[in-house]
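User: Before I run my own analysis I want an independent prediction to cross-check against. Here's the chain; please return only the structure tokens and, at the end, one sentence I can use as a sanity check.
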Amino acid sequence: MATFPILSAFAKNWWVLLVRGLIALLFGITAFVWPGLTLLTLALIYGAYAFVDGFTAIWVGGTSHAWGLLLFGVLGLVVGIYTFFFPGITAMALLYLIAAWAIVRGVFEIVTAIQLRKAISNEWILILGGVISILFGALLIVRPLAGALAVVWIIGLYAMLFGVLMITLAFRLRGLAQAS
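Assistant: Structure tokens:
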């Protein structure tokens, strides 16, 4: 184990990965049990991020006289504060942003597939992926509450799978630490 210092560090601190996995697993379960609370929490976390990001941008922009950064910092503070007062609106805005991203990405996937049709075979797969992206984005716009629930469940499923993998890895590393 000496040839890989990172492996040694992980093995000695296997419990950190266990805690990380358990927290991810609990978060994933919470996403399914209380999806509304999970969505609200995600919006508030985004608000906290926007606030802190805005504050740091103001600090750096003010000390370096970078007025554009200072302006974006003020915008970040406003978005962060607004999110704390209106988290539901922020959650919906983020959902519409995801919808727009999916639609634009789908269009570009279809355009790319058409451009590549002479160079590759089975370009229909990329076209199908683009159509699915567009349909997903449209579904989020037409049925935002169902879309929000789907997004929370996808995040929850990811968190549960990641948590199980981290827990499994932690116990494997525990075995390495005990063997050395």
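Sanity check: The mean pLDDT is 89.
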